[in-house]
Amino acid sequence: MTTSPGPQVVTLTANPSLDRTLTLPGPLHRGGVARLAPSTTEPGGKGVNVARAVAAAGVDVLAVLPAAADDPFVRALTAIGLPPAVVPVPSPVRTNYTLTEPDGTTTKLNEPGAALDDDVRAALGSLLTTAAGSARWVALSGSLPTGTPVDWYAQLVRQLRATGVRIAVDTSEAPLLALLAAGPEAAPDLVKPNTEELAQLAGTTEAALLADPAAVRAAVDDLHRRGVAEVLLTLGADGAMLSTAAGCWSAAPPPTTVRSTVGAGDSSLAGYVLADLAGAPPEERLATAVAYGSAAAGLPGSAVPRPDQADPGAVSVQPTA
Predict the structure, then answer these.
(1) Of 87, 125, 191, 299, which alpha carbon lies 20 to 30 A from 144's?
(2) CATH architecture assigned to 5-136
(3) pTM metric for this prediction
């Protein structure tokens, strides 16, 4: 009898959600009535979105999350061939609502997630550590439910270090600040901030950061000084920047008709990980990340792209000083 070698990628989604996308026929008017186009509902949350995109590329992936085994969210993931590893919690998985307008404007309404007690967090950490034994990447993604210690991601990075797995973190606000304040031993191999999150780390506003390219580079360099090996800075319609010990590059995306930006950053992270698994050099990892993010933005709702929908060759990558 042969045994499975285990997943190559493991994701943690501490705050999963059923993502319901409502498509508006025109601009949103507060107090008015909108007759919606057909809506979609997909299992989501940042780590789940990464897992879906990785699975669509035919790579073994395990999504770890808190949910009851019979939760509609778990049934939805299982139905698309991605059965998760769950730690039971009594509360149902939350529903997040996304309103998309014809010009691509996206408005999100997110419910709070289920609280995680000490036992649940310990069980999730144990699941991650066990699965990481066969994996090459672990991605810790998204917000933390109310009441979760803000330094939980830092604790998990320390816990996972002994497995030798590469660790990516994509979060924001207090959990991101706590992660980077915890010292080099808690620094992940990769962080994927957007410009708003990088501004939070730099103690400035997003507008001030974007007005000064030198400030962007200084903020990224500070992440390296804190122990982060690779920084993938996503820039929305302007593409992304990658900084590693080997150099720094910027990438411009191909022309894209934006339908929904939900999950585009998660798809970028998935593209980066997939390229790394294939042994690609930094420039190609960046091009693949941007291609995946652009492809996701051109899809409806929180859909994630297949490999044939992402074209790294259409991404322009340039070294930066």
Answers:
(1) 299
(2) 3-Layer(aba) Sandwich (3.40)
(3) 0.92
Closest CA to 57 of 272, 301, 282: 272
Rounded Cα distance, 38 and 35, in Å: 10
Residue 266 appears among annotated catalytic residues: yes
Which of these is catalytic: 71, 151, 170, 266? 266
Could you tell me which of 312, 317, 229, 221 has the C-alpha nearest to residue 268?
A: 312
- Using one digit for the tens of pLDDT, what is the confidence trace for 176-208? 999 999 999 999 999 999 999 999 999 999 999
Q: Are strands 316-319 and 247-252 parallel, antiparallel or unpaired?
A: antiparallel
Domain ranges in the chain are 5-136
pLDDT digits (tens, 9 = 90+) for 244-267: 999 999 999 999 888 888 889 999
Q: How far apart, in whole angstroms, are the C-alpha atoms of residue 187 and residue 182?
A: 8
- Distance of alpha carbon 309 from alpha carbon 12, whole angstroms: 25
